[in-house]
């Protein structure tokens, strides 16, 4: 753990964040190490996506600090923040492809915006990135013609177009058929192992996440409930973690939303 | 009473916050204009989508408004034997009022609402966020070209509206009703003043273009990113722009033609 802290690419300390009156994070400390896949898991609505936006500087914490590669995200001037973002890639849940551009132009977009490469070179790079996600043949399709899984793979090719140092994946497996899911698991692992891209994976798909993550943080109710390597979490005795990993409908996270006793409710005449 | 005061205070605060956000957005878009000029392709694409595609509705409306105007004016003018003033009447009404106002209203219905919906959906589908993550400022790359294109399109569309309106007026007045053509065109030429009529009309349409562009883009960018939120924002664009255009038209008319 100490080694992990020293080698961290992202360092989060005492993070507090609220949406209006709703507290999302209530004092979180987290370290994302270089070159590993770190997963952040938790039930829907726990603010996992918000955490990625905080790391990317799209949102600002109420209290606490977030450092990425030694830079305090909040204190960076916009131009510096944008420079840092060129070294981060994010795969959005929906893919978030630009709908008026075809697959090729979507992947070429960051290269055209941020490099002075000529068209021939951009073409080669885009084809290589598309080849890596298996969609070189789909380069002339428009986003509306792609399946959900294909859109995510194109978005992945776009996110790695500038060869980032880290990738953030927002629920990459949700709503995918088993084949697309397998493809995405393989791609995320390959990018991490072969291209040494540090990865933050936000998900609630237990099986896939346990397969590829090196370290897992479980969050709920604004706090880290447990953390550790996948094997240690699977054997942990903590009731909440056990319920989440085993997918039990009832436990510390109650099946019923808070309500008065059923008998009282049924006997009452007023609505 | 307390509740009433609270409600008034709350809506005033909301209005001021909204105005503040809209002003900040406007400043950001203005700062993004140099980058738009560096990449004219972005502007040309938007000019096509908001301007060129609005030409047909503006042309047809202009033609019909001119025709109706000539018909109604001829009906009244001929009672006083003043139908030779028909050309002047039609042209002045179009250039001073109907051209700028109606083309702005048509622009909002056709292009402003589409802009709001497009930007709102880009927000809802995380396209704006993804641009930010790619270190591309969406205010410069998406909003500023749309703002400039709308701002430039409205005066051009107003000119087209007025021109076709005059043509429609001539078709009805000159060709169908038989008003003397020399009187029709001569009256127009002699009566329309460059500064008083033409320049004032252009100033109006430039102002309306600015308002149309600002409201449509702000509503799209500030909307709640859900299907309901986008639909509400689109409605707000049409309602607010129409109110603003009509209100501003009164103020501008009072300032310009109050001799």
What topology does this entry show?
The complex is a heterodimer of chains A (271) and B (259).
Chain A (H helix, E strand, L loop, with lengths): L1 H5 L1 E12 L2 E12 L3 E5 L6 H8 L7 E6 L2 E2 L5 H8 L2 E4 L11 H12 L4 H14 L15 H12 L6 E5 L7 H17 L3 E6 L2 H7 L2 E6 L2 E6 L1 H5 L4 H8 L15 H6 L4
Helix pairs in contact in A: 4-5, 4-6, 5-6, 7-8
Chain B lengths: L1 H37 L1 H12 L3 H23 L8 H39 L2 H7 L4 H39 L4 H11 L2 H29 L4 H30 L3
Helix pairs in contact in B: 1-6, 2-6, 3-4, 3-6, 4-6, 4-7, 4-8, 4-9, 6-8, 8-9
What would you note in describing this structure?
The complex is a heterodimer of chains A (271) and B (259). Chain A is an alpha/beta fold. In chain A, helix 4 crosses helix 5 and helix 7 (178-194) runs parallel beside helix 8. Chain A has a domain at 2-81 and 197-267: P-loop containing nucleotide triphosphate hydrolases (Rossmann fold, 3-Layer(aba) Sandwich). In chain A, helix 7 links the parallel strand 7 (166-170) and strand 8 (198-203). The longest helix of chain A has 17 residues, at 178-194. Chain A has a 6-stranded mixed β-sheet, sandwiched between helices. A 4-stranded antiparallel β-sheet of chain A has the order 2-1-4-5. Chain A has 11 helices and 10 strands. Helix content of chain A is 38%, strand content 24%. Chain A has helices at residues 2-6, 48-55, 78-85, 103-114, 119-132, 148-159, 178-194, 206-212, 230-234, 239-246, 262-267, and strands at 8-19, 22-33, 37-41, 63-68, 71-72, 88-91, 166-170, 198-203, 215-220, 223-228. With 259 residues, chain B is an all-alpha fold. Chain B has one domain (42-256). Helices cover 88% and strands 0% of the residues of chain B. Chain B has 9 helices and no strands. Chain B has helices at residues 2-38, 40-51, 55-77, 86-124, 127-133, 138-176, 181-191, 194-222, 227-256. In chain B, helix 4 (86-124) runs parallel beside helix 8. The A-B interface holds A 53, 56, 58, 82-83, 85-86, 88-90, 92-94, 96-99, 109-110, 113-114, 155, 158-159 and B 122, 125-127, 129-137.
């Amino acid at each position: 753990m100490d080694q992990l802290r020293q080698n961290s690419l992202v360092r989060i300390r005492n993070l507090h964040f609220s949406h209006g009156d709703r507290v999302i994070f209530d004092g979180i400390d987290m370290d994302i190490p270089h070159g590993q896949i770190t997963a952040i898991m938790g039930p829907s609505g726990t603010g996992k996506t918000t955490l990625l936006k905080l790391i990317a500087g799209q949102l600002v914490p109420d209290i606490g600090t977030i450092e990425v590669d030694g830079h305090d995200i909040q204190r960076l001037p916009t131009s510096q923040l944008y420079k840092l973002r060129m070294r981060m890639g994010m795969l959005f849940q929906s893919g978030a492809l630009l709908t008026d551009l075809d697959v090729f132009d979507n992947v070429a977009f960051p290269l055209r915006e941020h490099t002075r490469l000529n068209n021939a070179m951009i073409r080669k790079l885009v084809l290589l990135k598309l080849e890596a996600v298996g969609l070189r043949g789909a380069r002339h399709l428009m986003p509306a013609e792609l399946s959900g899984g294909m859109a995510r793979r194109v978005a992945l090719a776009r996110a790695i177009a500038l060869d980032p140092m880290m990738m953030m994946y927002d629920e990459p497996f949700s709503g995918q058929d088993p084949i697309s899911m397998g493809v995405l698991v393989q791609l995320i692992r390959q990018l991490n192992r072969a291209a040494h891209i540090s990865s933050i994976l936000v998900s609630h798909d237990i099986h896939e996440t346990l397969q590829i993550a090196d370290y897992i943080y479980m969050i709920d109710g604004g706090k880290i409930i447990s953390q550790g390597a996948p094997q240690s979490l699977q054997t942990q005795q903590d009731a909440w973690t056990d319920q989440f990993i085993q997918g039990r409908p009832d436990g510390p996270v109650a099946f019923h939303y808070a309500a008065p006793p059923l008998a009282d409710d049924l006997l009452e005449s007023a609505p | 009473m307390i509740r009433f005061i609270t409600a008034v205070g709350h809506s005033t605060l909301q209005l001021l916050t909204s105005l503040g956000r809209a002003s900040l957005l406007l400043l950001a878009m203005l700062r993004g204009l140099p980058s738009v000029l560096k990449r004219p392709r972005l502007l040309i694409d938007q000019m096509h989508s908001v301007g060129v595609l609005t030409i047909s509705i503006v042309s047809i409306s202009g033609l019909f408004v001119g025709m109706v105007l000539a018909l109604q004016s001829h009906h009244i003018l001929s009672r006083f034997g003043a139908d030779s003033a028909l050309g002047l009447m039609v042209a002045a009404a179009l250039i001073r009022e109907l051209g700028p106002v109606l083309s702005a209203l048509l622009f909002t219905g056709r292009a402003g609402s589409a802009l709001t919906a497009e930007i709102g959906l880009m927000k809802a589908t995380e396209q704006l966020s993804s641009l930010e993550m790619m270190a591309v400022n969406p205010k410069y790359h998406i909003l500023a070209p749309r703002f400039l294109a709308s701002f430039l399109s409205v005066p051009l569309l107003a000119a087209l509206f007025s021109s076709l309106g005059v043509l429609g007026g001539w078709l009805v007045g000159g060709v169908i009703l038989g008003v003397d053509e020399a009187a029709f065109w001569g009256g127009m030429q002699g009566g329309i003043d460059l500064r008083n009529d033409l320049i004032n009309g252009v100033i109006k349409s430039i102002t309306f273009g600015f308002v149309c562009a600002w409201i449509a883009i702000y509503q799209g960018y500030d909307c709640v990113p859900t299907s309901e939120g986008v639909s509400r924002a689109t409605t707000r664009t049409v309602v607010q722009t129409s109110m603003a255009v009509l209100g501003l038209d009164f103020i501008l008319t009072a300032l310009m033609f109050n001799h």
